[in-house]
Amino acid sequence: MALLEVDNLSARVQGRDILKGINLTINPGEVHAIMGPNGSGKSTLASVLAGRDNYEVTGGSVQFNGKDILEMSPDERACEGLFLAFQYPVEIPGVSTSYFLKAAVNAIRKYRGEPELDAMDFLKLIKEKMKLLEMDQSFMNRSINEGFSGGEKKRNEIFQMTVLDPKLCILDETDSGLDIDALKIVSQGVNALRNPTRGILVVTHYQRLLNYIVPDFVHVLRDGRIIKSGDKSLALELEAKGYGWLENAA
Amino acid sequence: MTQTVQTDQRLKGRTAHTPHIGPHHGHKWLEEFHHAGAAAFEKIGWPSADDEQWRYINITPITQTSFRPAAGPGSAGRGELAGVSLAGRGFYELVFVDGYFSPELSEIGDLARLIEFQCFHDASGDRTDRIRRYLGHELPAMSNGFAALNTAGFSDGIFLYLPAGVAVQKPIHILWFTTRHARPTVVFPRCLISACSGSQATIIQSFASLESDHPPLTNAATEVICGRDSRLELIKLEREAPHAFHVANEAVHVHAGAKFQSLTFNAGALLVRNNMTVHLAEPFGEATLNGLTISSGNQRVDNHTTLDHAAENCPSHELYKSLLAGNATGVFRGKILVRPDAQKTDSKQTSKTMLLSDDAVMNSQPQLEIYANDVKCTHGSTTGPIDEEQLFYLQSRGVSAARARSLLTYAFAGDVLNRIIHPEVRETLSTLTSECLHQLHIESVES
Ligand SMILES: Nc1ncnc2c1ncn2[C@@H]1O[C@H](COP(=O)(O)OP(=O)(O)O)[C@@H](O)[C@H]1O
Ligand SMILES: [Mg+2]
Q1: pLDDT tens per residue across span B90-118
Q2: ipTM confidence score
Q3: CA angle (B440 as vertex; B439, B446 as ends), nearest 5
Q4: Which of A19, A126, B87, B405 could form a disulfide with B93 if both were Cys (CB 3.0 to 4.6 A apart)?
């Protein structure tokens, strides 16, 4: 069974049609990349999958693990194993990262029928993951993303992802705002999550990230439609020829 | 000099009202003091609705009710005080019932060894001299009609005198408690604090009342003198019964190098008006004014602050936050006056409101008057419902919507609570905040 099955999905924001019939199948173990110029609808697709409120689904369906998730709240989707690493993570002053993450871990465990982690086990879990992403301890006591640099925010997203252990990881422009060292660390974190059961969807404008997180499939999104799919060589071709090349091809 | 409010522009009260004269117990100076208050009220009357400072809340429910002063302390025991006493937390506690000091209900411990505290009534000698030197100085009766009526009518008052260099470790809690009355009753709490140079303390004033058929009015006045290099934290807790009326005037004088920090916590009463005036009179004085309002139902809470920068190199910080539910209305008006001599003033004012219902209303306005050229004054104000982006972020990690809402609400309030200097007071107010939010059906967040 496919992990994610997006069938002819259309969505609009504020009365404007943004997604115009998306078809996408991700099987367990696969890494897919969605590339496309700014404004093509990449973040919209990610948001609709994660269940953001102000997006209206006007047609099609999304099956995740064989379940229709479009009717689910964002937290239910997260508990089902979907994770979105945001393009623009928000700052939440006054809510500490550790407090929030423990609440998240235990909400998901509870949903899965697993016992909640106590403070000790939780600490052990996050220490291990922090090491992987070369993060400082002090980070856990800080408010979520408050005063973080762009790169720190992205790293925090991937850190949370590794802690929450999702079935499907959606990364929205995780590479933007990262210098090359940070990019390597973040990619390492993502690659460590690659396994035969997990799916990964990498959304990016540039090919650069795909040198580090090598995809099995590449799709090109333009004006709310996937206009071309291929393997990783498609990304290189796009990089060399630019999006204009596909304009003519489409 | 304290900034005097534009007396001449004020219309005389529309409602005829003869000020009550409080008892003087044979003290001639007190008798004169009361009469000066009454004379001031005869001149200025009630604040008028045309007055810029008073037009945001309707005070006619107060001016049109015939409140009588409490004839004496009503009956109250520890049972009645249980919910509002902080003695159990080890704080010093001075209890006033209907404006009269209750030695039986107070928990004084070793406080008398550290500081002088004195009811006006049984003051004598030096202490009378000190009271007379300060009383009515920071808050002249002419400041406004309520200050005048308090001056005329208080039944007794408390004077706290912190000798030079003394640091009081435990918080001092002054509890003003109003009992049940068979008719509309007014109480005039009066508090005078003089913190001598280098002294240090945290002082809490709580206002609480029993529910009764007739709404009580509390008309409170507090004057504070922060001596050189003193550190004073002054907390006000408004926790009166849901139909009560409450007006408070607080005036603070900050000497060189002193640090004054306040928290005005509004959780009770139907109508609350707070006037807080801080006079930064000498260089390197510092004032931090914080506020937290949690309102619901038809509550109206009006916070007016004035930071009067009269000397150079004085920083001031202001953070007023409101959580408004139901049909609650909030007002914040923060005046920052920078006088010509107050060069290098650094003043930051922030007002933030979280609206928990569509019907709650906030009116927030800064008011800057700057007459010096080398100053930094910033102000900002935000009002809105819970941030949808933040909510979505938390939910996208598996946290339920209800839990996410409560996390964000607690974080909003926590921003103010975390600034409380005294750790045990911080803890006490965090608990109180949880109780208030619980009543708004916001589930608590355990750490
Ligand atoms: N919340 C929103 N409100 C209004 N328009 C939006 C919103 N989100 C996206 N859009 C519009 O949808 C289009 C696609 O945006 P987006 O999905 O962010 O593209 P991409 O991520 O590919 O750059 C853009 O034209 C953008 O302006
Ligand atoms: Mg985008």
Answers
A1: 999 999 999 999 999 999 999 999 999 99
A2: 0.96
A3: 75
A4: B87
pLDDT of the residue at A1:
86
- Strands annotated E in B267-387: 271-280, 286-295, 300-309, 315-324, 329-338, 346-355, 361-370, 376-384
- Indicate the burial class of A38 (C-beta count within 10 angstroms; 0-12, 13-18, 19 or more): exposed
pLDDT of residue B9 exceeding 80:
no
Closest approach of chain B CAs to the CA of A237, in angstroms?
A: 34
For atom 18 of ligand 1, the residue with the nearest CA is A43
Beta strands A199-204; B315-324: pairing state? unpaired
Q: Is residue B446 part of a domain?
A: no
Check pLDDT > 80 for residue B295. Answer: yes
Taking alpha carbons only, the member of B123, B129, B126 closest to residue B157 is: B123
Report the alpha-carbon angle B354-B252-B336, nearest 5: 55
Instruction: Say if CB B237 and CB B173 are below 8 A apart.
Output: no
- End-to-end, the C-alpha distance of chain B in Å comes to 47
Least CB-CB distance to A92: which of B393, B396, B403?
Answer: B393
**What is the per-residue pLDDT for B428?**
97
Q: Quick check: is B205 in a domain?
A: yes
- Counting the structural domains of chain B, the total is 1
**Are β-strands A143-144 and A92-96 bridged in parallel, bridged antiparallel, or unpaired?**
antiparallel
Under a CB-based contact definition with an 8 Å cutoff, are residues B225 and B195 in contact? yes
- Looking at the predicted structure, is the pLDDT value of residue B4 above 50? no
Range of the domain at B333: 40-387
> Is residue B105 in some structural domain?
yes
* CA-to-CA dists, residue A227 to A22, A33, A218, angstroms: 10, 13, 11
Point out the ligand nearest to the CA of residue A14.
Answer: 1
Choose the residue to mutate in A9, A10, A12, A16 for probing ligand 1, maximizing ligand atoms within 8 Å of C-beta. Answer: A16
Q: Which residues of chain A have pLDDT under 50?
A: 250
d(CA B289, CA B347): 11
Task: Answer yes or no: are the C-beta atoms of A226 and A45 closer than 8 Å.
Answer: no
Residues B223/B135, Cβ–Cβ less than 8 Å: yes
- DSSP assignment, residue B107? B
How distant, in Å, are the alpha carbons of A51, A81, B393 from that of A92? 20, 23, 9
Residue B23 domain-assigned?
Answer: no
